[in-house]
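Take a record:
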Amino acid sequence: MPEEIFSLNGVSFHFPEDSKKTLENLSFSVCRGEKLVISGPSGCGKSTLLYILNRLYPDNCDGSIDGEIRLFGKPASDYAPGEINHRVATVFQDPDSQFCMPTVEEELAFTLENLHTPFEDMDIRITAVLELTDLTYLRKAVIQSLSGGTKQRVATACALIMDPEVLLLDEPLSHLDPYTAQQFVDWLEKLQTRSSLTIVAVEHRLSSWGSFFEREIQLDGDGRLVVDQSFTQREPVLFPKRYSAIRETTALRAEELSFTINNRQLLSSLSFSVERGEIVVIAGPNGSGKSTLVKSLCGIYKKSTGTVESKGIGYVPQSPEYLFLTQQVAQEVAYSGASSRSELDRLMTNLRLDEIHNAHPFAISHGQKRRVAIAAMLADKRPVLLMDEPTSGQDAAALLELFELIDQRSREGTTLLIVTHDMEFAASLADSVLLIKGGELTGKFAAKDVWQNERLLTLHHLLAPKGVADLAKSFA
């Protein structure tokens, strides 16, 4: 019989401030060497389940657990705090939450120090894991200077250097460009085959994994187990056809925009303009300068040269927590005071926030946090809205609602610039695509000219959108 790594019997989890349980009556086992995905709607408790498996919960929160949990054949309660973590490594959804040191090398060394690794062995192990993850060139890099996707790869390297038996991954593809995501899945497949590593992942982008997973556990909106079966490959979300709402009025213009920090040029003399009502997708490889560009456009980063002309810009960051100013979701969405009560109610309903309207913005799931930030910026009614990875952590229903909201705002005259790695979402909405590589603007292209240009796609680590029926005709 295969060895059971995790065994849950009638497990429920409850935060004292919540009226209902986050997870309810879960029973399942995970065997050594399995490749398992946990799916379900945003906010259903998927990440909480991971934190139970690695003993982060309840050891580091006020929540309470009922039922029986066994890890490697022993009751979970028999493990001292932190004892299990050299056998069960975790890559969190927000990689910034697990970094303690300034550089990649120091972060890896810090991990080894916590494992009491002899000093003379550290350099060999750091070199080996950087080669394994193709990150050797970042050994001396400052972590906070890296893109979100690159940070995700560094976090994975920090997990693997522990030589774990189990790897827990929370939305590992959410910040990766399509090409890098495909490479990550292929690389993980080879790693798992070679080492018999047990892999448990929380994921919404199931279509990006092909046949990697063997088994799927699906939770419903109440944190109950509704599916436990062999994994079946998924098709991407299909979006309705959208009609352009561009007006011949310039809403934003950037001229010779550049940004340099610590003698390192991150953006180099970018010039482009965007019309009122236009939806522009900003795309390119991880670390190409996409987030730096939107931060420079809205003034978070002080540009080194150039000008930005616009009558008002709103910004939804990649880490939505940076926006939050209140202690309640409903207050956060209404904070600007620019929308009427009926408009706020529609936003809350459309983005499925009415069910968590009294929750603290920091106490909800990552996908829900992102929807709160999006709702707050939409309620603010700025003429130009910048969104950095708005689809991250969103289930299919949320993606469709987001599509409808963005489409509606565009028709009303709002101009949107969206950084995204989700090519299906991009193909459904984009009028134009700004392609960036190495901090330089390749150009601004009509969307239809990008999806059919293999050279441009390959150069910018993009993949042609899947699941968009008869794409060429839809743009004709």
